[in-house]
Each structure stands twice: as structure tokens, then as C-alpha cells.
DNA sequence: CCCCGGAATCGATATCTGCCAATATAGATG
DNA sequence: CATCTATATTGGCAGATATCGATTCCGGGG
């Protein structure tokens, strides 16, 4: 599956019905978040003091095989939640804050809604 | 699968590594959002002027069978994103703004992160 | 009390997903 | 160039998921 390049959205879900094509793109990102291991990976990377984590940090944090971790990293990267960079022998992963912010905004509850 | 009752979280993912047990709960909710049809259903319900939509509104909006829509509604309801109420012959669905807000908060990007 | 219409549930099926073992790749290092 | 180490890719399997047609359930009216 090809990477999901640009940011795609737009108004909060609760504001107006999301366009079907946009929904498909957004759903891919949420689907990537819909796995406990990937959520934890994302959280570990995002909360690292240096802003990045190497794969070795991650394999150590789970009772899963290295290929499985690598697979999850690829999923997160393909939907634009992570980027990776090689330095020396190690791959370092970082979160893409814009992506997180975008999703956060999509789920935001308009003021008009809380008033009801 | 039993419904996911109480709100479960907590600090933004980018703040500290999420607890594995919490990750499992949160992942269920994101997985529910990880389908284009469910995303659209949620958006249609959430953006309805009255704050609710009946199943008939939804089946009309998709080229899918009524059981399929009903299934997706159940998934969204089980993770606490929707509630339903019967009035006369129709079932009305509403979003649970607290759930949306909770997810939005989880994905929020701490100020410390944007500064980097 | 029976029927009708809206909605949920059931059963089946095709597709997708997560996992691991094995293998491949790609820098670093001798 | 041979090798070692870190990570990615491949292949296969077991379990989950999306969908549909058929059926069931449940209020409301005759």
C-alpha cells in the first residue's frame, strides 16, 4: 500500500459530514492507531525525551519478534504518523506532530455541541 | 464483545508511554474509527442539526444493506462513541461528545513537542 | 390478536490482519 | 572483500472483519 502523503483534512467530524474520499484516507490513519501495540509504539516514540527512539528500544519494550515490530513501524510510517532516519547502524523513528494535531482536530467537539 | 463502559484515559500519548492495559481499551475505540463507513456514520450523526439521526437516515446515505449499517452502529455503540434511543418506531443515535473529546485529548500535541 | 414496518441478529463467506520463522538487505568494521 | 549487526521483507497460517441474505424481534395500528 502506498504511503499517504499529504495531510488530508479539514473540519471536525462533528461539523459536517465528512467526504467519502476523505473518510477513506482518515480511516487508514485511525486503523493504524487501532492496535494496542502500535498505540504503545507511537506513545513510546512520542514521549521519548529526545523525540525519537531506535528500533532496538522498541523491540526491548515488547514481547514480540523483531519482524513484528518492524511491521508495525511500517504501518505507522505509511500513514504518516512516524518518520524514520538512519544514523550509523540504527534507525530512529520520530512522530509527525502535524499528523497527531490533525487527528486531534478532527475529533474536536465544536462548542455548539457541548452547549446542547 | 462487552461494551467499553467508563472513560479510560489519561495523559496525551505524547506525554508518557501509555499503559498497556489502557492501550488495549483505547485501541478498541480507534479501531472502531478505522473504517470509512463508520467514520462517515459518526460524522453524519455528529453533524446533524438535531444532534441525532435515525437509522433510516443512515441506510439512505450508503449503498449498503440495512444489516451492515446496523452492524456498524453496534460497533460504534459498543466503544461508547454513540448512544441510541427508541422513539416510536425509530431508533435515534447520538454521539457521546465526551468520548470524542477524550480521544482528541489523547492525540493532542504537548507544547513542548512543537517547540522542538 | 394479527399484521406491518423498522431495526437487530444469525449464518456464511471472502478478505484482511497480526504474528512468527526464515531470509534478505544494508551499513559498519576488520 | 568477508563478516557482523541492525533492520526490513517474505511466506504462511490462524483468527478477526465486512458484507450480505434470511430470519427474528419489537412497537404500533387495524
UniProtKB/TrEMBL annotation, chains A, B:
Keywords: DNA-binding, Transcription, Transcription regulation
Transmembrane segments: none
Ranges for domain HTH arsR-type: 18-115
InterPro entries, alphabetized: ArsR-like_HTH, ArsR_HTH, HTH_ArsR_DNA-bd_dom, HTH_MetalResp_TranReg, WH-like_DNA-bd_sf, WH_DNA-bd_sf
Keyword Isomerase: no
GO molecular function, a single term: DNA-binding transcription factor activity
One Pfam family in the UniProt entry: HTH_5
Protein name: Transcriptional regulator, ArsR family protein
Biological source species: Planomonospora parontospora
Amino acid at each position: 500500500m502506498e504511503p499517504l502523503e499529504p495531510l488530508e483534512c479539514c473540519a471536525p467530524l462533528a461539523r459536517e459530514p465528512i467526504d467519502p474520499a476523505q473518510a477513506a484516507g482518515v480511516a487508514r490513519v485511525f486503523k493504524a492507531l487501532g492496535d494496542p501495540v502500535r498505540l504503545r509504539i507511537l506513545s513510546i516514540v512520542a514521549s521519548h525525551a529526545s523525540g525519537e527512539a531506535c528500533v532496538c528500544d522498541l523491540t526491548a519494550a515488547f514481547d514480540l519478534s523483531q519482524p513484528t515490530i518492524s511491521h508495525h513501524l511500517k504501518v505507522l510510517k505509511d500513514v504518516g504518523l512516524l518518520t524514520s532516519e538512519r544514523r550509523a547502524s540504527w534507525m530512529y523513528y520520530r512522530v509527525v506532530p502535524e499528523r497527531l494535531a490533525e487527528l486531534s482536530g478532527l475529533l474536536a467537539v465544536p462548542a455548539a455541541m457541548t452547549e446542547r
